Amino acid sequence: MAKKEYAFYPGCSSQLKASASNYLVSVNAMCQTLDVKLTPIPDWNCCTASIAYAPSSELSRHVMNARNFALAETHLPGQDIVATCAACWLNARESKEKLDGSAQLLADANEALKEAGLKYQAKAEVRHMVEVLIEDFGYDELGKHVVKPLDGIKFAGYVGCQTNRPFGIDGESFENPKYLDKLVETVGGEAAAGYEQKVTCCGGALAFSEPEKSQKQIKDIVEAAYDHGADMIVTPCPLCQANVEVYQADINKRYGTKLNMPVTYYSQLMTVAYGGTAKQAGLDGHIIQPKKLQDIAVRVVNTKK
Questions:
Q1: pLDDT digit string (tens) for 201-255?
Q2: Which residue among 1, 58, 212, 264 has its CA within the 20 to 30 Å range from the CA of 290?
Q3: Within 13 Å of residue 11, how many CA atoms lie on the same side as its CB?
Q4: Does residue 267 register a pLDDT over 60?
Q5: Using CA atoms, how far apart are residues 110 and 169, in angstroms rounded to an integer?
Q6: Can you tell me the distance from the alpha carbon of 143 to that of 75, in angstroms, rounded to the nearest whole number?
Q7: Model confidence over 46-78: pLDDT tens digits?
Q8: Please, what are the domains in the chain?
Q9: Residues 165 and 91: beta-carbon distance below 8 Å
Q10: Is 214 exposed, middle or buried (0-12, 13-18, 19+ CB in 10 A)?
């Protein structure tokens, strides 16, 4: 039996063969080291994050999340729901807050769920994977598994906006959350202190409608990382990762810059530090290759004491 078990909500982007599938690969490897069992919620559906504020009723989007909650409570009773995607976590957390805080909304949602033979009982907690790492393990415990410290790599911890407001990580500042910096230091890397763009929006919602505005946001995020001497950016958000990495080439064309900054996930750092291979860390899924991280991944672990 695993040390800890959770009802896992992959989300559309982090599921197998999706845009952030390398995130899932690294999370699975990290969890194997930590003896964590993630059981996907059976028949889970989209959290509606991408269409949450499109013309539709508020009830319909909360019912979509309530269905996931009810499925978790039915099939994986007593287990917290864990999401790796920041948008999924934020959207699900909002639904839970509103459903749990309104008897009428909860009744309406359950009336809709009745058609599928389900009922949300407000028992399941909704958490982001970084909450699990920090609250259920703690930095000291996470550090015990490091066999390949990430010496010589400096990371800019880009939190983004979705894991920061309105809920945030317990005990962290909204303006200057430090948990990514602490995770970096826990696995032997160097955090870019004073990185002022860490909670700036990446402009993901504007990527197609107003690309010039989105790309200006990304330019500022990446240039600030360079200004602080960072070798790469680390983030907990699949949308931030994709947006900040993918559009650097377009930004270079637009502004005449030479941006080439790798953007990684915290779970990739941890997998490599825990002795995982480049493939186990999902490092083969990047457009801009995180070379320094790849170099550490191929090193042989020294087992001599």
A1: 998 878 778 889 999 999 999 999 999 999 999 999 999 999 999 999 999 999 9
A2: 212
A3: 28
A4: yes
A5: 29
A6: 33
A7: 998 766 555 567 898 899 999 999 999 999 999
A8: 4-130 (1.20.1050.140), 147-297 (3.40.50.11810)
A9: no
A10: buried
End-to-end, the C-alpha distance of the chain in Å comes to 30
Cβ pair 225, 195 in contact under 8 A = yes
For residue 82, give the amino acid letter.
V
Helix residue spans in the chain (DSSP H):
11-14, 21-34, 58-75, 86-101, 103-113, 129-131, 139-143, 179-186, 211-227, 238-246, 248-255, 266-273, 291-297
* pTM, rounded to two decimals: 0.94
Per-residue b/e over 51-88, b at no fewer than 16 CB within 10 Å? ebeeeeeeeebbbbbbbbbbbbbeebeebbbbbbbbbb
- Enumerate the β-bridge partners of residue 37: 5
Residue 96 and residue 166 in contact, taking contact as beta carbons nearer than 8 Å: no
How many CB atoms sit inside 10 A of residue 236's CB?
Answer: 29
Distance (Å) of CA 188 to CA 35, 154, 185, 197: 21, 10, 5, 22
Q: pLDDT grade, residue 275 (50/70/90)?
A: very high
> If we measure between CA atoms, which residue out of 196, 251, 190 comes closest to residue 227?
196
- pLDDT, residue 54, reads 58
Q: What order of strands is seen across the sheet that includes strand 232-235?
A: 190-191, 154-157, 232-235, 263-265
* C-alpha count within 13 angstroms, C-beta hemisphere, residue 59: 12
What mean pLDDT comes out for the span 263-279?
A: 98
Is residue 29 packed enough to be buried (19+ CB in 10 Å), middle (13-18) or exposed (0-12)? buried
Q: What is the pLDDT of residue 5?
A: 97
